[in-house]
Amino acid sequence: MQFGMPTLIENNTIKENIALCKKLKLNFIELNMNFPEYQVEQLENWKLFYELAEKNQIYYTIHLDENLNIADFNPLVRNACLETVHRVIEVAKNFVSLKNRFGDATQPLIINMHLNHGIFITLPDKKVWMYEKYFSIYEKYFRDFFNLCEKWIGETDIKICVENTDGFCRFEKKILNMLLESQKFGITWDIGHSKATKEIDVPLIKSFLTKLSHFHIHDGTENPPKNHLALGDGEINLIERLALAQKTNSRCVLETKTIQALEKSVQWIKKNLNYKT
């Protein structure tokens, strides 16, 4: 199995993240575009990232900014989001060879994304989600996104995976069904988010097992809801989830938020999975 780490707030540079990745003998780093040092302008200096990865025999996946909103009603915002995705895909194309050389060539290079819920209007007796109220517009914008991504990715071994967060909304489930019509889209199962939301997304995720390509692995609890815990510090049946990751040929990001929790998680993997490092 392929295990990797996220970019961590305690590390200030890509070199520090790579040093930790090598120390823990992990396979890859997921570059998180919520950080200022991994914005698209920095990633477009891809030769620097490539050379550092090549020297250290690792590769990258990419996590799009969580605020990305493909269906924003403001065309200026929407077009900026589309441009960001396009430019990230172009960067990712340069990283595919790293994945093939230092990872598993049977697994696509993953670009991870969240679905933005948008806003809701609070009425005396209910909440009205704007994207549900104006679903035809919302759906059109995602259909445009779908078509553009198919064009931009082309025949390159890249897949955009949609991650579960705090529960897919009804309108998002419809969009997910549409996106998964394409081989260019898949699912990221974040098992910690899933646990903290009482596994409400599990039936949907399990209905698309053939679309699973990526896992965010961290422990969690339901009551109180917690996630991003070190492996072994929560309530998740980690062996079961990791077995499914292996069965679906998915790679796994050990998505803790601290170096200490990441180190503890790697030790758990080595002890419980006989993972060779």
What characterizes the major β-sheet? 8 strands, parallel, barrel
Number of helices: 11
Overall residue-averaged pLDDT value: 96
Overall 3D form: globular
Rg, nearest Å? 18 Å
Q: Give the proportion of residues in helices.
A: 40-55%
Q: Termini, distance in Å? A: 11 Å
Low-confidence stretches: none
Q: Give the helices and strands as they follow along the chain.
A: EHEHHEHEEEHHEHEHHEEEHEH
β-strand amount: 15-25%
Give the neighbour order of strands across the main sheet: 1-2-3-4-7-8-9-12
- Summing up helix and strand content along with how strands pair, one would put the structural category as alpha/beta
Could you tell me the number of beta strands?
12
Short description:
This protein is of the alpha/beta class and 277 residues long. It has 11 helices and 12 strands. It is 44% helix and 19% strand.
Describe the structure.
There is one protein chain. The protein has an 8-stranded parallel β-barrel with strand order 1-2-3-4-7-8-9-12, surrounded by 5 helices. Strands 5-6 form a two-stranded antiparallel ribbon. α3 runs parallel beside α4 (75-102). The longest helix is centred in the N-terminal third of the chain and has 28 residues, at 75-102. 44% of the residues lie in helices and 19% in strands. It is of the alpha/beta class. The chain has 11 helices and 12 strands.
